[in-house]
């Protein structure tokens, strides 16, 4: 299968924080891959902006090193030289006046203008104000802002209000890289482009849903940052909330940015408040690898793991629980969504084994793909014996080389910014609704002063999380790569 590459319009992209880790690991390598795929016009311009005092050549050398390391470009790759010719650099004082007039002089009339805020949220307002004040951004410009978008409802509202002083909602792209993953988008295609699943996608046929985002790494090296956030702010309020919305939302009237986001917003507003018994928090421990040491605070009560049972109060999902879990230092690195359907109401097969529930598993990482478990007759003589088998579709196997070499989430999302397509980006009211649901949970933890449950590094999480499922006569899926 040959994938289609549709070039975007000529653009000027300014990357604030261009000397930072995200720019080196994701943004610049992603742009290079889109350039080699033929999607970025050779006339486009990519301008790095940061505090570091350097010139264009120094930035190009820095970018080349990052691209060779993270995109696998060869030292003598002619396309790398062509891509580096698109790059420029302007030293910028985000809180002062230095560099802004030079940046303005480099912007070309007629090109799409996009500004990527790969900086701390505390600088969002300063940069937005100067882009508007110096006349660098116009009514057609787009800004991309990274998470964390606030740390609670009040700060998210304040940040939205600050950006709204200079840019309209149609110009603001709040990026969540999970929404750029191929399988996440395929979840919408599976639901809304096939008659097979959507009639069964409700409480009448779905027993429960599990969403798992497990990591093998701890927080060493960024413990002081993570300790101010924890798993619920770092993962649940944004990434996992978005996955939950895509599973649970109603079909939008059209695949249109606001139509999709309207339906996601309805899901968030239908979430029931969580009871204390429906949440488990944990901290990893282990010889030479424990959270308290990595965080640099022996009395920290910040969670590195959280599991919760979520209910949605609407006609489609009333009575069907959604189980969410995410954590550091777990057994394997994996992200998946598992929809478990109800068992057949009656079995006509007496001694051949009880039919097991069908299960649709959507793997986000590693090995993106989908797996549907169905019951069949076990091959061979000897009567009717039932066995559960997977109908497995990995993108690498099903789609050939193009399936194995799918664009990274950042590549796709940045191209969507240039196209002006906000479908896979969060809207301001969506972010605020998510914080409105999350804030009471965090407040109850802070007021309760209860320590998170310990769990061993390399395990599946705290024992209390297992009991969260066992009391409902269910079990977590095994965490494995």
Automatic annotation (TrEMBL):
NADP(+) binds at residues 51, 147. It catalyses: D-glucose 6-phosphate + NADP(+) = 6-phospho-D-glucono-1,5-lactone + NADPH + H(+). Keywords: Carbohydrate metabolism, Glucose metabolism, NADP, Oxidoreductase. Pfam families: G6PD_C, G6PD_N. InterPro entries: G6P_DH, G6P_DH_AS, G6P_DH_C, G6P_DH_NAD-bd, NAD(P)-bd_dom_sf. Residues 14-186 form the Glucose-6-phosphate dehydrogenase NAD-binding domain. This is Glucose-6-phosphate 1-dehydrogenase. It comes from Paracoccus aestuarii.
């Amino acid at each position: 299968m040959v994938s289609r590459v549709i070039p975007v319009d000529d653009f000027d992209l300014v990357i604030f924080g261009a000397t930072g880790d995200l720019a080196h690991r994701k943004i610049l390598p992603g742009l290079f891959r889109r350039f080699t795929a033929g999607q970025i016009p050779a006339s486009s311009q990519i301008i790095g902006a940061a505090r570091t005092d350097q010139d264009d050549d120094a930035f190009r050398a820095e970018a080349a090193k990052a691209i060779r390391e993270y995109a696998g470009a060869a030292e003598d790759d002619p396309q790398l030289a062509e891509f580096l010719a698109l790059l420029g650099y302007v030293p910028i004082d985000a809180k002062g006046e230095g560099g802004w007039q030079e940046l303005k002089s480099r912007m070309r009339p007629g090109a799409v203008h996009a500004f990527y805020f790969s900086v701390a949220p505390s600088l969002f307002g300063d940069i937005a104000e100067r882009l508007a004040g110096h006349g660098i951004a116009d009514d057609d410009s787009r800004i991309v802002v990274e998470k964390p978008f606030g740390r609670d409802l009040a700060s998210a509202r304040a940040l939205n209000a600050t950006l709204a002083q200079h840019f309209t909602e149609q110009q603001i792209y709040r990026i969540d890289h999970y929404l750029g993953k191929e399988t996440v988008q395929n979840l919408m295609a599976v639901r809304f482009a096939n008659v097979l699943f959507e009639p069964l996608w409700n409480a009448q046929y779905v027993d429960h849903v599990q969403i798992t985002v497990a990591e093998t790494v701890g927080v060493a090296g960024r413990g002081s940052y993570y300790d101010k956030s924890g798993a619920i702010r770092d993962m649940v309020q944004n990434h996992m909330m978005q996955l939950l919305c895509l599973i649970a939302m109603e079909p939008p009237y059209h695949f249109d940015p606001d139509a999709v986001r309207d339906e996601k917003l309805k899901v968030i507003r239908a979430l029931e408040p969580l009871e204390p018994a429906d949440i488990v928090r944990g901290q990893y421990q282990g010889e030479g690898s424990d959270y308290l040491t990595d965080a640099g605070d022996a009395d920290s009560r910040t969670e590195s793991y959280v599991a919760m049972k979520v209910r949605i109060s609407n006609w489609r999902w009333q009575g069907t629980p959604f189980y969410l879990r995410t954590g550091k230092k777990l057994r394997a690195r994996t992200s998946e969504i598992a929809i478990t359907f109800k068992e057949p109401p009656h079995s006509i097969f007496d001694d051949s084994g009880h039919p097991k529930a069908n299960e649709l598993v959507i793997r986000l990482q590693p090995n993106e793909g989908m797996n549907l478990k169905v019951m069949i007759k076990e091959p061979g003589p000897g009567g009717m014996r039932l066995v559960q088998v997977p109908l497995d579709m990995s993108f690498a196997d099903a789609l050939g080389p193009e399936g194995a070499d799918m664009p990274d989430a950042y590549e796709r999302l940045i191209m969507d910014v240039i196209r002006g397509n906000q479908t896979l980006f969060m809207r301001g009211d969506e972010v605020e609704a998510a914080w409105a649901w999350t804030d009471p949970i965090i407040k109850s933890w802070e007021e309760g002063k209860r320590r998170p449950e310990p769990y061993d590094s390399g395990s599946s999480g705290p024992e209390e999380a297992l009991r969260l499922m066992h009391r409902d006569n269910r079990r977590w899926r095994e965490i494995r790569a």
